[in-house]
Amino acid sequence: MSETILETQNLTKHYGGVHALNEANFVLHKGEHVAIMGDNGAGKSTFVRQITGVEQRTSGTISFDGKEVNFAGPIDSREAGIETVFQTLALADDLDVPDNLFLGREITKCNWLGPFRLLDYKAMRAATIEGLERTAVKIPNIRNTIQNMSGGQRQCVAIARTATFSSKLTIMDEPTAALGVQETAQVENIIRTLKDNGEPLILVSHNMRQVFDLVDRIIVFRRGRIVANLNVDETDGQDVVSYITGAKTGAEFEGAA
Amino acid sequence: MARSTESTGGLVFDRSKRTWPNELNILIALIVIIAIFEILGQTLPYMNEQSFLFDSRDRFDSIFNEARLRIIILQVAIIGIIALGVTQVIISGGIDLSSGPLVGATAMIVMSFAQTELVNGGPNPKAVFGQWAFDLPVLLPIIVGLAFGALIGAINGSLIAFTRIPPFIATLGMFLICRGIAQAWTRGKPVSFPTEGYAGLGSGMMPVFWFLGLAVLFHFILKYTVYGKHTYAIGSNEDAARMSGINVQKHKIMVYMIASMLAAFAAIILSSKNLTAQSGMGIFYELYAIAMAVIGGVSLTGGRGSIIGTVLGAMVFGVIQSGFTYVKLDAYYQLMAMGFIIIGAVVLDKVRQERAASRR
After folding, report:
1. Chain A residues close to B304, C-beta within 8 Å
2. pLDDT band at B3 (very low <50, low <70, confident <90, very high)
3. Nearest residue of A to residue B7 by CA position?
4. For residues A15 and A165, what is the distance between their CA atoms, to the nearest angstrom?
């Protein structure tokens, strides 16, 4: 595999006495799609929160794009190029698609006007359309406000942020958990497009079929530890389930759980 | 483009799919209300077939009853200026109850810096300060007034942003504080006799000029600047705004400061127009301003509304007031009718919103 985009070493997070995450060693290569699986409370979300700076880790190091990083908050990580699609969508209902994509990082003119600098609607609309096309997101009218959209369309808008800003890494936390069949297919198509474009992805999911369909590698978490690192070609659903439930533990992780 | 629209499921800007703007509804409501008064004037037995809108007198060749139109807009202009600020506060998801008393306090303070020395050849009987405060350049009281407004707004905004107490409570407190300041400033005595330059700020149709000028300015700001976009974003989904890197606290303080400065400016125009300042000035103004915004389609839950809507809301407000007087409805009933109309406007908005949500 090619260069490493994200690497964590001995990443650990304790909430008081609870060891939510223990010495997680994780590597993600450029262009690679990796799924994180595990039971509820296994440490998946905790892991994501440490990477994106939503929470501060107890110990360990994170390297992103070749440099060691210390994100003070989610905005830091976003500026570094990590785009996260959260379970609860961070969209403003009364704004339209370009407004939401560019929220907090608007393209502006006359910047000497400070907070009253002018919005460049034209440029933002053009960039939005370009981003949507790149991800093959289907939204009939980008001038529509978010409140008039279906759950799938909303999810797509959230994901399209990634493409619009050509981020270096996308993290999706159960992006299809609340969606219907068609909408799920739409989101999965977007993920495939990201893969074709060579954009790396971390996908947190419970959906076995989806994971086998979409990613190159599966990381299994159990009780705050990584217990397996499996190539999808060399494993099957049965196998993954036994790692998730603890019936099996990966050879290189013996003694970890 | 053919290929690209195909790959995005027909992703083209489709004008026909744009939603019906709310402002049009209010404009229609305004026209309907005027028509109702016109019909009432023609049909009510005691009205002698007067016209509400048109000029029926033969000796003048104007079409409209210009005097009435002028009074309607003049009546709402000053509260309208406050409503422009209140609109922004409500769009950002807050509420400002302090604007009415702020008008009283600002008028008292500003007028003290705008007094003239000689009244009818004798010394000014209402003098607040000593010799130094007479006949100051007109810019000075304006600056003092806007600075006071900015200060009150900054306190409102900081309380709401940093202590996270509900805006209702913070501005309710400021409501009492400002009324107190207004009364304490001269121990209840009115302040009068401004300089000629100051009196010119609000004379004649000047309030209308300020109201419409500021409306155009803030329409532009809300629609085409980062400040405006972030105001809508915060009112729509504060968490999303924060996650997107917007400094929500700083922005809220700015919104409340602008609103209070607009209220202070309204106080300057009002005291100039009346040539006097009294501590009781601006009673009910905060509620009228909120009513104008709400009638104009500004959603109290934040995120929705516009300056155009508020201006139309102000016109509806003025037309109704004027119309009630026109059909000789007792002043006591006017307040009650106004209350029903405000409630009706909010209920209608709610129904419209729910219908839009179910159409998804």
Report:
1. 94
2. very low
3. A136
4. 34
Please determine, for residue B13, whether its predicted confidence score (pLDDT) is greater than 60.
no
pLDDT value for B356: 66
pLDDT digits (tens, 9 = 90+) for A52-68: 888 889 999 999 988 89
Burial of B2 (0-12, 13-18, 19+ CB in 10 A): exposed
User: pLDDT above 70 covers what percent of chain A?
Assistant: 94
Which are the contacts of A147, defined by CB distance < 8 A and separation ≥ 6? Answer: A93, A94, B356, B357
Residues in chain A: 257
Q: Which residue of chain A has the CA closest to B10?
A: A140
B19 vs A contacts (CB less than 8 Å)? 144-145, 148
pTM value?
Answer: 0.86
Interface test with A, best of B3, B4, B5, B11 (most A CBs within 10 A): B11
CATH number for the domain harbouring residue A171: 3.40.50.300
Q: How far is A235 from chain B (nearest CA, A)?
A: 34
Domain hosting residue A47, numbered range: 4-253
Number of domains in chain A: 1
The ipTM (two decimal places) reads: 0.79
Residue contact A141–B14, C-beta within 8 A: yes
> Strand order in A59-64's β-sheet?
A18-29, A4-15, A59-64, A67-68
Q: Which residue of A has its CA nearest to B244?
A: A104
Task: Supply the DSSP string of B219-280, one letter for each residue.
Answer: HHHHHHBHHHHHHHHHHH-HHHHHHTT--HHHHHHHHHHHHHHHHHHHHHHHHHHHTEE-TT
Rounded-to-integer distance, Cα B81 and Cα B113, Å? 22
| pLDDT (0 to 100) of residue B303 | 92
